[in-house]
Amino acid sequence: xxxxxxxxxxxxxxxxQTARVDDGASHAEVDVVDVDRLGVSVHGVRVRGADRGDLxxxxxxxxxxxxxxxxxxxxxxxxxxxxxxxxxxxxRKHEFYEVRTDGQEVSxxxxxxxxxxxxxxxxxxxxxxxxxxxxxxxxALGGRKEG
Length: 147
Fold this sequence. Notes:
Order of helices and strands: HEEEHEEEEEEH
Number of helices: 3
Radius of gyration: 14 Å
Number of strands: 9
Structural class: alpha+beta
Strand content: 35-45%
Shape: globular
Helix content: 10-25%
Largest sheet: 9 strands, antiparallel
């Protein structure tokens, strides 16, 4: 995902809507909770590459690609035979970031563990961090490192 596409995404961030951008090489969706001139609160981010990528390479690249998150993520479940992986951050105050990928798509969410199980909760990034994260994930999916 190019920096120009990240800029286009930034212009589409609207409170309570899903922002979508596509440049043919990758597609990004951000479920926006709230947005202001500096930051954005989101329920989730999804980035999809045009072609099926290399799952192993994607799993290796994602921790660096997601350095905009407040907590680092690491692989916790990887099955190359089944074609999927889950990365998570350490649990803090019953909350953690969870990243799922099949090598072609990456989803990022923050989850809270409560008495009724896991629930998705919003997380906040600066607009610059969101753009950097989406670009980095696009690079991880496309087999090239953004930066």
